[in-house]
Specification:
Elements (H helix, E strand, L loop, with lengths): L1 E6 L3 H10 L7 E7 L2 H10 L4 E5 L7 H11 L4 E6 L4 H9 L4 E4 L4 H23 L1
Parallel strand pairs: 1-2, 1-3, 3-4, 4-5
Helix pairs in contact: 2-3
């Protein structure tokens, strides 16, 4: 099972993300949730996280700043961005940070499942490569 960290400053969004899809059937478990970028970094330091799904707009540290900081210590961390904004500058920065996807809120269940399948394929390929 691959581990997922969900990061959003809105409690209802975090709960909705946990419930919207059957994580286990996709090969994932929601290992932790965080309401701030700082909380997310603490979670990353305490356990191995494979995929981090983060909101863009959060107080203190944006999701993009969080990803940029996290990637320095965890270069293999895969990321997915959630946003209520279809802002080109956010999308551009997400691409620069090698985020696997940029999804708009409200999150579409089918789209999220498809993106998580892509994450799993990528993680499986990384695992197979490291075995070689």
């Amino acid at each position: 099972m691959y581990k997922v960290l969900l990061v959003d400053d809105e409690y209802m969004i975090l709960q909705g993300l946990k419930m919207i899809i059957d994580w286990e059937s996709l090969g994932f478990e929601v290992a932790a949730t965080a309401k701030t970028g700082q909380e997310a970094l603490e979670c990353l330091s305490k356990q191995k996280i494979d995929v981090m799904i983060s909101d863009v707009n959060m107080p203190g540290m944006t999701g993009l700043e969080l990803i940029e900081t996290a990637k320095k210590d965890y270069p293999n961390l895969q990321t997915l961005i959630l946003s209520g904004f279809q802002e080109f500058s956010y999308v551009k920065k997400a691409i620069e940070l090698e985020a696997k996807a940029y999804l708009l809120k409200p999150v579409d269940k089918t789209e999220l499942q498809a993106k998580m399948r892509n994450h799993k394929q990528s993680l499986d390929a990384q695992k197979a490569e490291s075995v070689r």
